[in-house]
Amino acid sequence: MAAPFTFTLPPELSAKEPPERRGIRRDQVRLLVIERATGKIEHTRFDKIDNYLRQNDLLVFNSSRTLPASMRGCDCSAAHGPCMEVRLAEHLPDDSWLALLLCEQGDPFGCGLRAGMQIEFAEGLNAAVLARDLNIPRLWKLRFSITGTELVDLIYRLGKPIRYEYVSAPWDLDYYQTVYAKEPGSAEMPSAGRAFTWKLLFDLKRRGIDSAYIVLHTGLSSYMDDELDRAHPASEEEYFVSRITAEKINSARENGGRVIAVGTTVVRALESVADSDGRVSEKQGYTRLKINRQHRLRVVNGLLTGLHEPEAGHLDLLSAFLPAEQIHAAYEEAIARKYLWHEFGDLNLIL
Amino acid sequence: MALRFARDGSAGLSLVARHGDQLNAVHNELRKLAPQIDIVVIEADVSKPRDIERIVATTLAQFKGHLDVLVNNASTIGPSPMPNLLDYPVEDFRQVLDTNLIGPFLLIKNALPAMTERGGSIINVTSDAGQIGYPGWGAYGISKFGLEGMSQTWASELEESGVRINWVDPGSMNTAMHRAAEPEEDPSEWANPAGVTDVFVFLASDESKGVTGKRFQAQEDWKATLSK
Fold first, then answer.
1. Which of A32, A59, A127, B69 has its CB 3.0 to 4.6 Å from that of A142, i.e. a possible disulfide?
2. How many domains does chain B have?
3. Cα dihedral sign, A204-B152-B57-A89
């Protein structure tokens, strides 16, 4: 699907390092606020977000913890087999994984990647390459020689965070975590909530603005293939909405509060579980829900999110909240005012 | 302590230590004692931040993001026999602080998100050397002074979070670390670690809800602390 609008993102507007390494606190990134009812745009700083929230509002976060999802392995099914970066994308219900395989030498996809290949990692870990994924053909289905918690332990021993070309240094995994991250499973940081500090969360709670958590393990934001990235095929993602969270959401709505999703993953999970009246119940499941301008939001009233690239997927989701031309106007202002994009960048609140 | 928690009905235990053989021995005992308990065993060094990420992630993967209790009892004495501060090698000093102070700081920081939604209990293990500057107890004592100060700060910062934090001085105990620290002393006069676990069980249980920011002495009348 085509993006609702296009724009050119100057390369210097990619955040190259975490805010704490740019000389500001994590909660001092900039905040672009767009009022849904009027389209009015305001420019502020994230630590002033409480000016836009009110009693009984509920912030819903994705508490998935970022995995060090980039691992190095070599094809051991052939003599002198090529080595590659294995980027874990998704843990599947049958305990296999989807992963992007990037050859270390030359063309990243040109070193004879194939089904049947065995990848050997350090510390005795192996993976069999089973098949290409049908939905996203750059991904391969892998089965590791070790599973469960032992595999999690090994991923943390061997892996490092996935790093894109615009990031200036191999920052430690800690920089890729939100302060409230719990269960590990995301290939990339659910970054919309990165700017929150515990102090801010406690301050908001004191003012009657509560927090609730869902889990949705994020996949990869790029398959290192421009055409595929532009098409942004919808992947199936597992989510978990707890009883406590469902109760908080229903209660906030009954009390006139707004449900504000921190991140597009939260929008996807909540809109997947809400009934036609917007009531939410405890649920664990998989979603392929595609949210776009035709989608009528049932439970989510507002969204805190990063600034998205000029490709279809996320901008499409934003158009469920605002007409595309309003988002476009706000993005043009953000570019003119040199907002920063990507996981360490500035944020956008749509209310 | 793990055996006592198992006996007292823990649903799950995450055991962390540097040496796999010792961990496996405890794991085997636990299996016999309480086969129904969900146990995860993690070989790791709490002086290494990367290991701490792994400890918390592996534990939370096993228990689906839930954690009720964190006991910070890993500790190192530093070089043995213990040098006076004037003779203390700086690298050893740093190593002791990394294990006894930075380790608990990072474990709390990483584990806290799993406790804020449902409440939880953090128990830091301290020492009388964390209150009195004994000659020769150099970096160890300083690290415990730091741990007690840090525990106070955490307790005040977490007041509204539903997470309680207390610290326990277990008193003189017959452990390998203590024997190494004072090889000339008679260890038979020291308490068996299994005999000082009551206060830990209390602090881990719902009975201690609302109790936070307190220092307990396991071998004294620790219940008296509750009314102070």
1. A127
2. 1
3. positive
